[in-house]
Amino acid sequence: MTIERVTQKHYPKAEIGRRGMALGLDFLVVWLVSSLLGGNNPGIQFVQILVFVIAWLILRVVLVYNNQGQSLGRWAFDLKVLEVEDRQVVGRIPDLRSLLKREAIIGCGALLVSIALSNIRANPTAILLVLPLAIDCATAFSDTQMRQALHDRYTGTFIVSSRRGYSLDIKVKRLVENLRRNVRR
To answer: Between β-strands 88-90 and 79-85, what pairing exists: parallel, antiparallel or unpaired?
Structure first.
């Protein structure tokens, strides 16, 4: 009887900046959709919150589950979400339950940011509503090995770089470089 060594597939860690831009793009899309239904009244708009929650779940759970682990933002920045077991990345998309738990955590933080943005003029202390999302995502900086945020650790997920996507960050870098070359001429 011999022991066979199984080679582990390498999954490149996603950069924190790209993860932030992907989350920001997803948030911007959902926030714009929900803001269209908001009125000019300051305060919490319950219809706007309901639309935000439904749009968040569609974009970040249903789309991810049916699109190989990529939401709109993750697709634009070449990222995908995978499952983690025993601190090892497994090459499969998380199940629907894990995605729901993951996005419930980060979605609550995003919803608080949305409420803060809607009420910042009337109440400048609303900026404090950004803290839960900031604390959740900032833990990825302290985890040097896996770069998992709190919602990733709780649900056993991991964000990796992907080959399939739009490569928005690379396209913007090329555009900026071309503009710099043209200005120098």
So the answer is: antiparallel
Q: Hey, is 98 helix, strand or coil?
A: helix
Residue 51: Cβ within 10 Å count? 18
Residue 14 to residue 171: CA distance in whole angstroms? 17
Could you say which DSSP state residue 62 is in?
I
Sheet architecture: strand order including 79-85: 88-90, 79-85, 157-161
CA-wise closest residue to 26 among 46, 55, 68: 55
The CA distance from 46 to 157, in Å, is 31
User: pLDDT digits over 140-167, tens only?
Assistant: 888 888 888 999 999 999 999 988 788 8
**Among the listed residues 111, 112, 102, 107, the one whose alpha carbon sits nearest the alpha carbon of residue 81:** 102
Q: What is the 3-state secondary structure (H, E, C) of 22-36?
A: HHHHHHHHHHHHHHC
Degrees, nearest 5: CA angle 125-130-134: 145
DSSP 8-class letter at 13: B
pTM of the model: 0.85
